[in-house]
Write a structure and sequence with these properties.
By secondary structure, this protein is an alpha/beta fold. The chain is built from 3 helices and 9 strands, in the order βαββαβαβββββ. The protein has a domain of 122 residues: Rossmann fold, CATH 3.40.50.300. The chain has a 9-stranded mixed sheet with strand order 3-2-4-5-1-6-7-8-9, sandwiched between helices. The two termini are 15 Å apart.
Length: 186
Amino acid sequence: MLPKINAFPLLPARVHEACGPLALSLAAVAAAQAVNLLWVRETWQPQSTGIHGLATYLDPSRLLLAQTQNQTEMLAVAEDALRDGNFPLVVMELTAPLSLTAGRRLQLAAKAGGSTGLCLIPEGVGSPAAETRWHISPLPDPGSAPEDSTLQRWALIKNKSGTLGVWHVRWSQSAHRLIVVSKARE
């Protein structure tokens, strides 16, 4: 039996954070489990962040993309969506640090609406209000081609509800789920 990740799927009615070079992977896996989701980003951000790659994880018709002029507008849109509860998952691409007040407002909105929030953050700018913070990075797989980056290291670096940990995971397209790679495999 493979080990389980004790803090994933993300707790509902809470806001979480992901950082690192593959933070988008955590958002994609969370999106694969959601009925529908709202993705909020600033208009000036380049489209190359990989949103189009989400089709591997979910039907694009389940994704609503909202673009705002700045982070203040983005937080207002996300807060309203979390509070409304019509989107089980709201993903925000943050470009600047989130204040404790803004982070707490998002947590209260998520709790009120029963929705899960996920902030994709630059490294080192996490909010104290986040329920969990993940660092997602590629992990070289000696059994695959060098360009294969599907093996990933998911490190839970903040967890208000439990312990921290590190898992090596891979997305299985055929099973449409996240697979934790056992130590024996490594």
